[in-house]
Amino acid sequence: MMAKQLAYGRQWSATQLSTVMNNYSLPQIKQRPAFQIVNQRLVCQRCGQVVKEQARLPDGRYYCAACLTFGRLVEGDQLVYVPECNLFESIVEPLTWSGTLTPFQAQAAKQIVAVITKQQRHVLTAVTGAGKTEMLFQGIATALANGQRVCVAAPRVAVCLELYPRLQAAFANTPIMLMHGEQTVPYRYTPLVVCTTHQLFKFYQAFDTVIVDEVDAFPFVNNPLLEMAVKQACKPCCALIYLTATPTVKLRHAINTGDLTGSELPIRFHGHLLPEPHCYPLFTWRRSVKRHQLPSVMRNLLRECLQEQRLLLFVPQVRDLEAVQQSVVRALPNITVNTVHAGDPNQLDKIAAFRAGCGDVLITTTVLERGVTFKNIAVFVLGAEHVVFTESVLVQIAGRAGRQQEHAANPVYFFYADYTVAIQRACQQIKRQNRKGRRLQSTV
């Protein structure tokens, strides 16, 4: 490896080039226009969006406002990239993971290997806690052993931080780069990259295999910019795998029309079914919390749950955190209660501490709806009627409970002032997956 990091597969705007030349080896630089006219409209070639009429500089040139965060592109600019050459040391036996898959996981893993070998586009639908990451290991190993470059991307930093150490342990002899917006470690050229989907804007035709986890999650879902980032990070011949527990209508349609292949696993790795939520109406919960009191039914269930497990308590908005925390502390003064949300400067430290077993109750927004695993926790959702708690969000939240075999019976409670369609459909979806899971259990 050279003193300067190799930049194969990387992409910048031409104006950014001078700032990176001191840090990267840039052989075989190529350029492409930052904008093209498509159907008489100016289209950004980095994010794929039509340039808006009002996005004009004083000199009359247009710029792309949609992907401005990644450096301004102005009409007439060039995008600079270095073609990917896969110039890293070959790894004969990259997989160092010594675990075993269940027969159902092994079947799904075999399909992933086939998809990567044939460079197909595929959706793996698996319930929360099914062990999707472990099912990827053999496929990733196959790609790496063949000298391919692999990217595992996810919409949220928390998911990447969960994936990274697991991939490090499974591929101990493989250099891995972790990339996200809060990362301070300099970029390294590696055969395996773990990153947020936003970071894919920094690549162009860089990967032979791209795996996108939690594709139904904000901010990726229904986001054409991030979909374009994934598309452009793929080489012209590339395996593209989407992972989800709650496939969108768009994904289901793509599977039905044959645009994507699909596989499904409706049972968790430990063989148990998903916890089915218990639903309780609490019509005046906001009034109670304003007085720093918990409704009696919630207080009793809270006390009961904390006898054998810890608690993850979801609230609709950041402004609810403090009032709910005070209500819980007042009801149970001898327990440790913390809060966390997406804008919390100590977010990562708090999540790591709770994962390590510190604290009895963690009150959170939907920032922890998915991609995180805590041992032996019950799950409460207070204000489940709120618009932020969509069907898929509620299913993901419920999936935080019962993720270990010895704690498969962790309970889930939805407390609401109004029984919404989202609550109804989330419960129905979980029941439907459990019916499929029972049928699968009966075949063993």
Can you characterise this structure?
This protein has 444 residues and is of the alpha/beta class. It has helices spanning 17-20, 103-118, 132-145, 157-170, 224-233, 249-256, 285-290, 296-305, 321-331, 347-355, 391-398, 421-441; strands at 5-6, 11-13, 24-25, 30-33, 35-38, 41-44, 78-81, 121-126, 150-154, 176-179, 192-196, 207-212, 234-244, 261-265, 278-281, 310-314, 337-340, 361-364, 377-382, 412-416. The protein has a seven-stranded parallel sheet, sandwiched between helices. A six-stranded parallel sheet has the order 15-20-19-16-18-17, sandwiched between helices. It is globular. 46% of the residues are buried.
Short description:
With 444 residues, this protein is α/β, with parallel strands linked by helices. It contains twelve helices and 20 strands.
Q: What shape does the CA trace take? A: globular
Query: Into which percent range does the helicity of residues fall?
Result: 25-40%
Describe the biggest sheet?
7 strands, parallel
C-alpha Rg (nearest Å): 23 Å
Total strands: the figure is 20
- Distinct helical segment count: 12
Structural class: alpha/beta
Mean pLDDT: 94
What is the strand content? Answer: 15-25%
Widest beta sheet: strand line-up: 10-11-9-12-13-8-14
CA distance, first residue to last residue: 50 Å
Uncertain residue segments: none
Helix-strand layout with pairing:
Elements: E1 5-6, E2 11-13, H1 17-20, E3 24-25, E4 30-33, E5 35-38, E6 41-44, E7 78-81, H2 103-118, E8 121-126, H3 132-145, E9 150-154, H4 157-170, E10 176-179, E11 192-196, E12 207-212, H5 224-233, E13 234-244, H6 249-256, E14 261-265, E15 278-281, H7 285-290, H8 296-305, E16 310-314, H9 321-331, E17 337-340, H10 347-355, E18 361-364, E19 377-382, H11 391-398, E20 412-416, H12 421-441
